[in-house]
Amino acid sequence: MTVSNNKDDFVSLQPIKDQRLSGIAKGLPIAGIGTIKWPLLTDASVEVKLYICQSLSVPQCPMNLLSPQYLAQQAKCANDNNIHVPAGWSGSFQLPVQWELPIVAS
């Protein structure tokens, strides 16, 4: 699951009524569902745009949530155009501070 608290992150957004999150952000109202576009810069200074569909708009969420597992699942579905990266790109990137994503060490 991917959650954004900023409606400007969405390139498409369909309103949802009477739905709430469960789990870590339990009880927060979901405003909508759609496709997030998050640009990021790779270590090689190449801009990569992530389009993550089926993402939730939750304005009251204190931070954005990006599940690495969800991102990996969408990357496997290349025919669905869920995630776009330059052809042949591999590497690492730093998450922008303005995304307000928590960093968890494992």
Concise summary:
This protein is mainly beta and 106 residues long. Helices cover 8% and strands 30% of the residues.
Note down, in words, how this protein is organized.
By secondary structure, the protein is mostly beta strands. It has one domain (2-85). Helix content is 8%, strand content 30%. Strands 2-3-4-1-5 form a five-stranded mixed beta sheet. The protein is elongated, with a radius of gyration of 14 Å. The relative contact order is 0.25. Residues 77-82 have low confidence and may be disordered.
Strand order of the largest sheet: 2-3-4-1-5
Unreliable runs, pLDDT <50, ≥5 residues?
Answer: 77-82
What integer value in Å does the Rg equal?
14 Å
Shape: elongated
Task: Calculate the terminal CA-CA distance, rounded to whole Å.
Answer: 19 Å
Structural class per helix/strand content?
mainly beta
**What is the overall pLDDT average?**
76
Please indicate the percent range of residues in DSSP E strands (runs of 2 or more): 25-35%
Number of separate strands: 5
Helix content: under 10%
Q: Could you spell the SSE succession in H and E letters?
A: EEEEEH
Q: Please tally the helical runs, counting DSSP H or I stretches of 4 or more residues.
A: 1
Largest pleated sheet? 5 strands, mixed
Domains, number: 1
